[in-house]
Amino acid sequence: MQHGTGAPLPPQVPVGHPAGPPPGPRAHVPGVPAHGPHPPVPPPPAHLPYPPPGTAPVAAPHGPAAGWSGGPATGHVVLPPPVVGTGAATIAVLLIGPAGAGKTTVARHWATRRPVPTAHISLDDVREWVCSGFADPQSGWNEHSEAQYRLARRTCGFAARNFLANGISCILDDAVFPDWPVVGLGGWKRHVGPGLLPVVLLPGLDIVLERNAERSGNRRLADEEVAAIHGRMAGWYGSGLPIIDNSSYDVETTARVLDDVLARAISGQPLG
């Protein structure tokens, strides 16, 4: 059919189909799969990194331009890389907590399970190097026991710096109070270095009392003293330091949560 004026109209093309004759069969090119140059996308891995209890899922970025990959707008959102632990990083960790929190046990377990050389430096072990003239705090806190604690902390700090200088990570444990900024956390950072990563291990008071009752020797404290120490440790809430309540965790779980918290601190991701 022709109109009164102009050339005949081209044949109509259905919506969604290109104009022109349909393409013929695709010629096979050696080295290229028959279904096209791009192989099928492999399925996602079956195992995902361990998320500690209470960790909120990572939210996608907001805004029209945030998170978009280059090229055409396909709806693909770029998410932060998953946290898979501290891996091979050389780090120094200070595990803080009251007596009975499990600091020494967790610190040794975490250091043992790391894939790279890692040392556990126990403050109590170093303090007990003093045999003759040992000032036992259970006999009363005095200038001698305070001096020996201060000496042990400095010795542990020197050991940590030496390990780090030789490429060996380390974890220290101490009952550091938040109201001791100079002697406590500040002193540890002076001894070890500003890159020291502090984490607080703070289970409930009933758990701390129960674990302390299982101790023996000069490491077992009176219930009143344990309760007082635990109460002072509560001052770490609101300090900005990561706090792990391991009241319902075993040693293995606590060590995994600790590793996740440290990995987030290293990568700059939120800790909660």
What does it look like?
The protein has a domain at 92-267: P-loop containing nucleotide triphosphate hydrolases (Rossmann fold, 3-Layer(aba) Sandwich). 31% of the residues lie in helices and 8% in strands. It has seven helices and five strands, in the order βαβααβαβααβα. A five-stranded parallel sheet has the order 2-3-1-4-5, with helices on both faces. The termini are far apart. The relative contact order is 0.16.
Give a concise summary.
The protein is of the alpha/beta class and 272 residues long.
Any key phrases for this structure?
alpha/beta; Rossmann fold; 272 residues
Summarize the helices and strands and which ones pair or pack.
Elements: E1 92-96, H1 103-113, E2 118-122, H2 123-127, H3 143-165, E3 169-174, H4 185-192, E4 197-201, H5 205-213, H6 223-233, E5 243-244, H7 251-267
Parallel strand pairs: 1-3, 1-4, 2-3, 4-5
Helix pairs in contact: 1-7, 3-4, 5-6
Which spans of ≥5 residues are poorly predicted at pLDDT below 50? 13-23, 32-74
Distance between the termini: 73 Å
| CATH level 3 topology of the domain at 92-267 | Rossmann fold
- CATH class category of the domain at 92-267: Alpha Beta
Mean pLDDT: 75
Q: Measured on Cα atoms, how large is the radius of gyration?
A: 30 Å
Name given to the CATH homologous superfamily of the domain at 92-267: P-loop containing nucleotide triphosphate hydrolases
In DSSP terms (H or I, runs of 4 or more residues), the helix count works out at: 7
Computed structural class = alpha/beta
Adjacency order of strands in the biggest sheet = 2-3-1-4-5
- What series of H and E elements makes up the topology? EHEHHEHEHHEH
